[in-house]
Amino acid sequence: MVTELEIDNLYRLPLAEFVVARNELSKTLRKAGDRETATQVKALVKPSLTAWVVNQLAFEAADEMAALMAAGARLRETHLTAPAEHQEATRARRAAISVLLDLADKVMTASGNPPHRGHRQRISLTLETLSSQVADTEEPKAGRLSRDLEPKGFDAVADLASALGQLQASRPTTTPPPLRLVPPPVDAELDGDAEDAVAEDAVVEDAAVEDAGVEDAVAENADKLDEDDVRRAGEQDAAEDRAAKQRAAEELQQLDEALDEAQQKLAELEAQKIALRSLTRRATDELVVVEQSTEEFETAAGVAERHVDETRRRAEEAQQLADEAQRQWELAQQRRQEARAALDRGQQEANASALVLRRAEQDAEIARQSVNQLQDRRRKLTDAVDGS
Predict the structure, then answer these.
(1) What angle do CA 337, 338, 339 make, to 5 degrees?
(2) b/e map 358-383, b = 16+ CB within 10 Å
(3) What letter does residue 15 receive in the DSSP assignment?
(4) What are phi and psi of 229, to 5 degrees?
(5) Against a cut of 0.85, is the pTM above it?
(6) CB neighbour burial string for 45-81, b if at least 16 within 10 angstroms, e if fewer
(7) pLDDT (tens digit, 9 = 90+) per residue, 149-178?
(8) pLDDT in tens, 74-92
(9) 3-state DSSP: the chain helix, strand, coil percent, rounded to 5?
């Protein structure tokens, strides 16, 4: 049985040590009889460099990662419902990613891998994807990543679409502002007030002609003053209306231009999305090939390691046989020397025995001669006795 801590420690290791440590853990589990878990551990894929960096951020920058995930949660909650809060959450996520990218540069530099723009882009995409994930799902989690992640739905495009929606909502209505009525020019004839004055003059029979003329002149001057004021007010209102319309038209044109630019950016992002997906698929295919090659290499390395172990065992057995043969040879040499010494002693004893034998033969010859002499004397004495 393997613990979560053991798996975390595996992903905490320097990237170059991952495969060796994984294989050792798998062997340990297999020797302990847990073949199923050993197989699962053996199947763990070595992380890519940028995925490994994100894993290290999950272990070493937990607070910064928590801030990123919180900003992602706020983005999901406020999407299309609270534009202002959504924009604030977007800024918070960008700030969190910026902080994590700076920390990622330090991790890569410390590991001997100088960071470059491509690394930062892949790490940024992975961080965005992690922030858009819903908790308690089976999607890959930071700390256990083996490859870079691709945003689902492309949050950048969604953010731009949201911004476009807000831009369209902020456009003014095309209904022109209400126009103010400008009174038509006053005729040369007297208006209603003047006519009333004439009627009053006609009723007053005793009014003098001079008084009537004065009143008519005063009324006419008043009418002219009122007409000028009304004309000037109408012209001013018309000028203000024209200026308001001009400003509205210019603002509408600016908004249309901004909308066109935003739509163009959206189209560019869509094209980048397609290209990025193509690159991701190609990278994934290449990663599969690399993983297969790695597995084949590891298998071949395992076979070679077993051959080396067998060769080493046979060499040790041959050395043991050679040592035993050397011991037997030394023992044979010792016995040969002992046999030669025994042979030398036997030869000396044989020489001594031959000398004794020669002396015994000489003594026997002397004894035979003495016996022969005694026998001759005996015969002679016998013959002498017989003759007497």
Answers:
(1) 90
(2) eeeeeeeeeeeeeeeeeeeeeeeeee
(3) G
(4) -60, -45
(5) no
(6) bebbebbbbbbbbbeebeebbebbbebbbbbeebbee
(7) 987 654 445 544 444 544 444 444 444 444
(8) 988 887 788 888 999 999 9
(9) 80, 0, 20
